[in-house]
Design a protein that fits this description.
The protein is an alpha/beta fold and 259 residues long. It has two domains: 194 residues, Rossmann fold, CATH 3.40.50; 37 residues, no CATH class. The chain contains nine helices and seven strands. The chain has a seven-stranded parallel β-sheet with strand order 3-2-1-4-5-6-7, sandwiched between helices. Helix 5 packs parallel to helix 6. It starts with 8 loop residues before the first strand and ends in a 9-residue tail after the last strand.
Length: 259
């Protein structure tokens, strides 16, 4: 299928590895010119070079912390009129809410909720004026299936999802859609770091927990980042203009509800 986005411009944050990297590759293969941002220069530049080598598309790599105004400004200076925006951020370590104070909660909001909102604020009006825009936030299935140890993520990402629900209805008449992807367990560095942080409390080895999580999923495996990347690319396509304000699970069927 021709996704109809060749020649478009995209900003992707958190795009040097994992799911963000897979999304960048998926757009590049469709002929989209991409600006990718992350904080670690070596990883970011390696990803940018690999994308260029494989796809031949134009890739601009910006070393930036988008949780800070100057980081967002640097990314937007590199791509001032994006047609596509991916907001992707890491999460907070697992823990017990009794151990978290105000600073922990503010840090979580400053990581997972406010930067995507600021990026949307900076780009959505231009998208509407030009008559095309696709915004996708990678959140987490935890907004639908709360994970007890992930309270900081549960709260901050739910705030982002709630905000998006309102904005998405204001932009779609101008062919600008806003959706959230809710990944379950994926074979990624973030998943490995999450499990590693829980080992002391669980009293099990990393391999035991890793295998148990896969066995507990209806698909009996972890998701592949490229699967999420393909889903993302379709949401960014010219064919997806009637999909907006949705929280879309990609979790191997682990969400147990009907609706």
């Amino acid at each position: 299928m021709d996704l109809g986005i060749s020649g478009r411009n995209a900003i992707l944050t958190g795009a040097s590895k994992g799911m963000g990297r897979a999304c960048a590759f998926a757009l590049a293969r469709e002929g989209v010119d991409i600006t990718i941002a992350a904080r670690t220069e070596a990883t970011l530049q390696a990803t940018a070079e690999e994308i260029r080598r494989e796809t031949g598309t134009n890739v601009v790599a910006v070393v930036a912390d988008v949780t800070r105004p100057e980081g967002r400004e640097a990314v937007l200076a590199a791509c001032p009129e994006p047609d596509i925006l991916l907001n992707n951020a890491g999460g907070c370590p697992p823990g017990d809410f009794r151990d978290w104070g105000r600073d922990d909660w503010i840090a979580a909001i400053d990581l997972m909720m406010l930067p995507p909102i600021e990026m949307m604020k900076a780009t959505v009006d231009g998208m509407m004026a030009r008559g095309f825009g696709r915004i996708v936030n990678i959140a987490s299935r935890s907004v639908k299936i709360a994970q007890l140890e992930m309270g900081l993520s549960n709260g901050a990402r739910s705030g982002l999802v709630g905000f998006t629900a309102g904005l998405a209805r204001q932009t779609v008449a101008n062919n600008v859609t806003i959706n959230n992807l809710l990944p379950g367990i994926f074979d990624s560095d973030a998943q490995k770091e999450h499990i590693a942080a829980m080992l002391d409390d669980l009293g099990k080895s990393f391999e035991e927990v890793w295998q148990q999580r896969a066995a507990g999923n209806p698909a009996k495996r972890y998701g592949r980042p490229d699967e999420l990347g393909a889903y993302f690319a379709f949401l960014c396509s010219s064919h997806a203009g009637f999909i907006t304000g949705q929280n879309l699970l990609i979790d191997g069927g682990s969400y147990p509800g009907t609706y």
